[in-house]
Every structure is written in C-alpha cells, then in structure tokens.
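Tokens help. One example:
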Amino acid sequence: MKTSAESNNNASVARGGHSNLVARRPIQIFFIFFVGFALMFMFVYNYTSPVTIPVFSQYFIAPTTTIDNDKKLENVLRNASMENNTVIITTLNDAWAEPNSIFDIFLESFHVGIETEKLLDHLVVITLDEKAHARCQALHPHCYQLETKGTNFTNEAFFMTKVYLDMMWRRIEFLGTVLELGYSFIFTDTDIMWLRNPFNRFYDDADFQIACDNFNGDSNDLNNLPNGGFTYVKSNEKTIWFYKFWFNSRSIYPRILTQNVLNKIKMNPLIHDINLKIRFLNTTYFGGFCQISKDFNEVCTMHANCCVGLDNKINDLKILLQDWAKYMKLPDKRKVEAHPSWSVPQSCK
C-alpha cells in the first residue's frame, strides 16, 4: 500500500514529465517548420534561377563514379584531341573487333569518306576487354581499356539483354567523365559509317546534339526520336550536370535503354532551367537504316540502326560501302546530276 508521500512524489514526477513534453513541443514544431522552409526555399530557387545548375536536384543525384587521377586516360585524350579539346570516341568489344568484323569496316569508312581520313588522328577507341584492346592497338594509335567493374562485355551483347543495358549505361557514365576532364566529344557507334566530315553540319549554339531514328524536320523539337549512337557534346557545367542526371535516372527507369530514358527525361523542367540547348540532327546528313539519307551529295554518316544481329550489320555495311565506292568513282558533274540510291538495308530488314 502506497504512502501519502509516495503518491505525492509520483504525481510530481508525472507533472514533471508532462512539463518536459510541453517544453519539447515548441522545439519540435520549430524544427519541422525550419526543414519545411529549407525545402521550399530550394524548390523555389530551382525554378526561379534560369542560369544556375539546380541545387535541389543535386540531393537526389549521387555523383557518378569518376576515373580519378587516371593519367593513361588523360594522356590518350590529350594526344588525340583537336585544338579545341574535342575528340571522337567509339567503344569496342571483342565480338566487334574480330578481323573482317564491324571495327574493320568502321575504320575503312574513314579512309574512303570525303575529308574523313584526317579525323582518325582524333579518334579514341574505348575497349571493353583485353582482346579488343590488343586488336585496337594493332590498328590504331589511340586506344584506352575501360574498367568494366566485373561485367564481361567480350561477347556480342544482344539487344536489350542485361549485359547490353549494362554496357550502354557504362558508356554514359564514362562519357560524363570525359566531359568532367574538360573534353568535348563526338560519340559514334562503331556501326556508323563516316562518309563525309560532319563538322559543318553541327549547330554552333547547341550544348548537346544527337542523331535521330526518325527526324521530324525541326531540330529544336523535343518530340524527335533520338538515337544515342551518335552525339556531339560540348564540355561545360550544363552538360556535366546533364550526364550525371541522365546516368542516375536509370534507377527511376530500370531495364530501359539509355536513349529511351533520354526520351523520358528530355522534357524535365530541370533540364529547361539550366538552359541546356538540345538539337536533333537531320537524317539527311546523319542517316541510318531507320530513316535513310537519300542524298549521296549531302550524307555525312550512315548508321546500321534498326538492325539486330552482328552478321546482319556486317553484311549490310559492306554493301553500303560498295554503294559509296560506286558513287565516289563518278565524275564530279555526274555526282551532282545522278541520283543514286542505297542497296541497303537487306539483311537488316
């Protein structure tokens, strides 16, 4: 049985606990108000600042894994770069590097194209396995073997398989690193034939330019369907942020191709707010099997897109270069008057 004194003590403790709770409530309310205000400030700041890189989004964008202090990469980029710190980049695995495979056809296109052979001095081949690296070194001066983080990219990566998607995302991550090192780049898939120097077909005002599977006639229209196999990207604060944003968006859109994720994010208000200038390249100049470039006198590149299977690509790209060789043999006057047509796609249909 409790004494009167014990009862009084218990009551006093209860009152004391209640008093502490009451005392803590203003602190909790203030803390909640402060956090809410901070978040609101960052949100408003993002959407009222047209120039500054969005701060709020950085809390949701973990930095990509960069290649820190990699002197080999820096040396390769420096040795291959143009005077304006621009390089041409492609990626290569063993399946595409075998003799008489895609890589040989790719290099051949530079030799038979118009004012393209000199561009080989600025081509950096990013190899994804040791066999591809050895083959690259046998044929080309600027090769860099990329760490693939335990994933085997040696064999043909079939479209939309996990290995294929991993390879595409590793590519985006790496290209972001190139931008961070201060180099602008043209990225080109190895199944793209370089038939004419493309630099006078790029837009001076664009930060990010990309080829299309289907071009709708308006290079500013975000409704164009991009193809990530050919891009021209200038190194600046906006594009560095954009490539991080693009790479980290893979967690929101898992098991989706990189260019399809680009389709999802290209109209994001954050991209608009940083004033990233995006332009889509005309298929008249940058064509492919999805949408053929019909004018031999204008075409710069032709891509074996809308085509699945290594053997199919090899077959049709060889035919494409045969068509090009016939065009190049024509006298200059006949080149203007003639209206040759491509014999492809055949196997890629």
